[in-house]
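Continuing from the previous page of notes. For each protein in this section, the sequence appears first, followed by its structure tokens. Read the first protein now.
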Amino acid sequence: MEPSTKEQCYHCGLPLIKGQLCSTVVLGQERQMCCPGCKAVSHSIVENGLEDYYRFRTAFADKGDELLDKTIEALDAFDHPDIQKEFVVEDGTEKHIQVTIEGISCAACGWIIEKQLLKLSGIQRVAVNVSARRATIAWQESQIKLSQIIGQLEKIGYHSLPFQPDQHEASFQKENHNFLKRIGLAGLMSMQVMMLAIGLYFGIFGSIDESTKHYLHWVSLVLSTPVVFYSGFEFYRSAFNALKVRSINMDFSVTLAVLGTYLASVWATVTKSGEIYFESVCMFIFLLLISRYIEHRARYKASQISANMLKYIPLTATLLENGKPQTVLAKHLVAEQIILIKPGETLPVDGEILDGDSHIDESMLTGESERIHKHIGDGVYGGTINTEGTLKIKVTSEFKNALVNQILRLQELALATKPKAAIYADKASRYFILIVLFITAVSYLVWLNLDPSRAFWIAIAILVATCPCALSLATPSALTSAMAKLNEYGLLLKRADVLDQVPEIDTIVFDKTGTLTQGEYSIAEMKLFNQFSKQQALSFAASLEAYSEHPIAKAFESDTKFAMQNVVSESGLGVRGFLASDELRIGKVTFLTPSSEVDELIDSSAIYLQQNDQLVASFVLNDTIRADASSLVAAHQDKDVVMLSGDAKENAVRVAKQVGIENIHFRQTPQQKLAFVQQKQSEGKNVMVVGDGINDAPVMAAANVSVAVGNAADMSKRSADIILLNQKIGHIQHVFTMATKVRRKVKQNMAWALGYNLLILPLAIAGYLTPWMAVIGMSLSSIIVVVNSVRLLR
């Protein structure tokens, strides 16, 4: 029912002030507003076809901004590059931001915000997380400004600010505290009401007169009322929110059962006639809250590892300016600045070591306790700990682009992605609710003719016993637990539905360099031509390879580097560029400029350096095979395991034999790798590609599932579905193991949820189930599902 609006603002409900009246036509009638802010909000809602908000609301909205025009003018500051630098992430032509939105109270609010913003030109995506009170927005800067987006939120009555990741933990603790307060109150009162009920039912109090019984019923009413209206409030709000957008959720059944039982018991207490079930109401709410709390903790576990990384980031850093140290805020550091890290200190941002040598503890990122030896030129990450020597670090990325923040954003995206099983379960639960409501109504009418005194309570028992909580929890509880466990192994899932696809994989394609091997090349043999010196050859090679992202580039180091012009890196072949008027090339023999010298070359496994048409040098490189590569390959002998390598035949065959791969394809360009995967898929195969994600973005994007191993920098730009944050490729096996376990758990959960409901429904319809029995059965069903899923964390 719509709230009263007589002499009140139709939007916010505050008193109308004479001389300041505004109006908007809502639901076909002119409605009075108290200020321009409320008028702007209501007008925007009407203009965008969202009038159902007013039709189904149960309370007034927050008051609009009375100084709306001035507020929107002030938002221009959000377009300033220095302001955006800290919060806005650029991805090509798109910009992304997470904002905290004040005033979100229900799902209807999230629905309005998404509908409203998506109508703006330039908005690419909007995802509102109602429970977290924040939204992720992607937009095209050329079409719309950030100030216009935030201004639009202000117009519809929602104040927003850039999201501060370090508030994540505080937000959870607050929500957790509220949960515990509601559970604590429900548990305390339930014990009191249950003791009174047991005494009355089983005559523990002895022979007592009717007036004393009636008095105890009133005591039960007083004790149960705060449980119903405080502890159970979230259920009613959720049900009303669903009704506002013309939908039904499981809390609708809960609300009907709780309020129906409570009001009927109140009536029986007042009239001194009929059944009283205050203890069932209290116990129902208490047990349901416990099952929801267990689910809440399980969901949080999935994001806890990523979110807690932010707690390791120090607030300050030691910045070196003109050789002098000074303390600055870590989040204000920018690329190319130099910072000093002393032994025992935590790195504030990602960077590259300029001076020093130390062992770095990266366990907070990778889950591995083994410390990593780092020296000059190596990359380091914010949140890791420098355990030994003093380091000078060149900042390579701002705090917002640091690895820990990339992980956090990817984790948020993964948790927002619903796999097919979860979507089907949601749909099934909605249909199930409608079916149960229909059965309840029919049963009530039948029992009204058979035994009117039992009709209402049988209907309540059906609603309570068949509440589809367990059905809705069956899939998400298992998935979130699985993702949390994989995080402990350093495996980050960018999509939750990946676990749906992994069991179907029948073909695994491995890249060689940086995947099956460590990608840490060294020069094993060097041969000089045409009287070039070793120093000249290394300087030429290092100058060219500085423009390459391929792992072999790190093998070429020289104190002398030349400024190259017109450098082109051709994926899978080599690098070419100009030094003054001379063209330099480094790469495979097929990449060289044809000449009589080149025609005589027969070692296709070597890397050659050429100046114009003269050979300068040849290099034979060594790379170490990963220790756990063989065990990973051996674990999948039942699948078609393939190596696709851009390297020469000799190197590819050597590595393939050592790790146990028989199907080998060498000298493969990225285009040929892509064609191979697409050919397999056209044959009905499900392909997983495991690569380092540097030169293989197209083939990884085309695969059914892709895994990026090795260097985790620039993760957000990769095409991989799974990212391995540590160097242990054998951990990929955990994805297969966990995917199989998740599928089994989901089947167990669904079988239990459906089996329980199919068993309990006939008993409830036949009248063999009292409300308190139904309460215990429903709650235990939900708890069993969640506990079964949480076992994946072991």
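Done with the first. The second protein uses the same format. Note its length before scrolling.
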Amino acid sequence: MEPSVGAVPHAPAGSHPYRHPAAGWGAAKSVTRVLLEQGELREGTRAILKMNHENGGFDCPGCAWPDSLKGIHLDICENGIKHVTWEMTRKRVGREFFAAHTVSELEEWSDFKLEDQGRLTEPLVYDAETDHYVPIAWKDAFELIGSTLRGLDSPNQAAYYTSGRLGNEATFLYQLMARELGTNNLPDCSNMCHEASGRALTAALGTAKGTCDLKDWESTDALFILGVNAASNAPRMLTALAEAYRRGAQIVHINPLVEAAATRTIVPHEFAQMAMDKATKTSTLNIQPRIGGDMALIRGMAKAVLEWAQGDPKALDEEFIDRHTQGYEEYRALVEATSWDEIERQSAVGRQDIVKAAQVYRDADRSVVCWCLGITQHEHGVDTIREIVNLLLLRGNIGREGAGPSPVRGHSNVQGNRTCGIDHRPGAEFLDRLAQVCRIDPPREFGLDTVRTVQAMHRGEVKVFCGMGGNFALAAPDTRYTYEALRNCELTFHVSTKLNRSHLVHGKKALILPCLGRTEKDHQRGGVQQMSVEDSMSMVHLSLGMKKPASPYLLSEPAIIAGIAKAALPRTKTPWDWYVQDYDRIRDTMAKVLEGFEDFNRRVRLPLGFRIKQPARELVFLTPSGKAEFSTAPLPNTVPAPGTLLLGTMRSHDQWNTTIYSDDDRYRGIKNLRTLVLMNKKDMRERGIAQFDPVDIVATSKDGSQRALNGFSAVEYALPRGCAAGYMPEMNVLVGIKDYSRQSDQPLMKNLKVTIKRSKAGAGPQSKTVTARAPRASVTAQ
């Protein structure tokens, strides 16, 4: 891979085992460095004391882990502080910057360098004649969008993407605008991360969300953590894991990589532990299945439980099964017919280790099973999550404290986006209420999800793309195909806080619309506004910015949405300006439309807000049978063909989604390198590959086409045989646009079939490239 232009030479790449606790002093040093680099030592420290606190605090714009129930003064984590400081930076990228750099020049910059320029300060429009972004007045920007949308032959020629950064109130207005315009083309980041969770839980339990809250985590006897890199993706979970270990709960981590969170931690707000450098274990058992082998492992645990039940009726909760489930006999027959040999072959885990995990489950009175993208981003992700529910049902681990399914969302309000209407497949009841309350006629046909939006743009059927937050060009699969799709649009516009790749991969016309960050005060006519978010466990609470906006020309997300709507809908009856003046008015309307949001304004101001009721928690199953449904899917074949490896993409520790803070990955012991592939040492030797050798990675898509990355560095890592891993977004180029699950429609980011060979030219470790841009010349479709 060619180095990015403008990269500063650094020391050669390095790799060493990480043997320290997660968080602790390593996190403290990293946070201090970031605060100093962004020039925010004073303001950043003040923000730390305000983050994730009620009564004037703001919600961390990072992960969706719930706020502490115990009033912890420092309910924070390293990555959350990085995320906030990155937003609060004093650096600015204004009109002088864009006058000095063409878009063609900026395309050669690394993604790190683009975002590191600082906060956007005013709206910008692309000038094709000069190849520069130039300032534009907000009114003119809205009119450009409005006239383009009004000129479409069909409202379905536009798509409205949402990332998890959007608050609930803005989310509601956004979907209202799209539906008043006449489309359900509302792709979102859930389409790429937890769509499988929603579909599986809806089919099994009648609810699209987990049933657990923090109280369940604090009272459970056993935690099973599947496909989660908690130390980086949900670092505040470390507190819950440490507390669980201290009170004697069993903690089983199931992941192809033994991550730092699965070893031990020093929780930063526990000052005595920090002072003594005293770590707490965060696991009692670690199991490493093959990539995609989790379903077979869970099936094995269920098989062990059913075998024990033949001599010990207490191994099952037969009363629960009889009263609250359907399909048990069929499931039991399926499990009995699945041999241990097949379970071991598909999971790549020995029977002895599977039985150890099953014993933990059997001996626990109450169990919580948690999972993340390591489970969902597979062809069989829905089946795997349903198998998890099957296991929970066997012992009645639904509908009681300390037990249940607990998916963990990786982005702050991605779950709230879906709850508040961002759904390309909306339900009829929701649309009926929206029509009645908001006096619109919403479309009833399903819209486009993320993958189908990219395909439609590529075919020229979607001509306008709006990105509400995020960095769509890098987050989506099949990077080159996605680039071509975006460039095929008549208009692309993005609501953002910082410059990123999506602004440079633009349509024939393009706009950058800068918005307030979550840390900033949102002044409207009704005073300083608060917005709400929903965490991974269905708690809804308020967030209040604390800092002066980075520029006087920034607008809030609701104000930007209202401006677009008024320009695109000249005869609208929706009181857009009235809503923006006071967000309580938006919440009053949401309370009438959204189930579970009744009395919204009062309840959201309660301590810690309120929890949206989950019917399955009360043993009310909104399934066709009125009961929890066992599933009977066959085990998928996860054994790679000879010479083939299974590759999963992941984030580094010094990264948040597509935002890269550095080329280091502290918890995996990686220094100065992102263009790498982690491999089992025996797989490397079998292929004649030594540490840091350059290798060529070729992925074969479902349609038979191939995509390649050349010159990546091979790094030895403790992975199961036949498995490999590397960073997104660099490796998104390997995911073909047709490589998505037929169960969930999610891109198969963790289910790539690849061959890896030593490159013919060059050897030795690469030097630092500071987050090289999504590869272009080094990628081939064969």
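What the second structure shows: Confidence is low (pLDDT under 50) at residues 1-9, 763-782. The radius of gyration is 25 Å. We return to this in next week's lecture.
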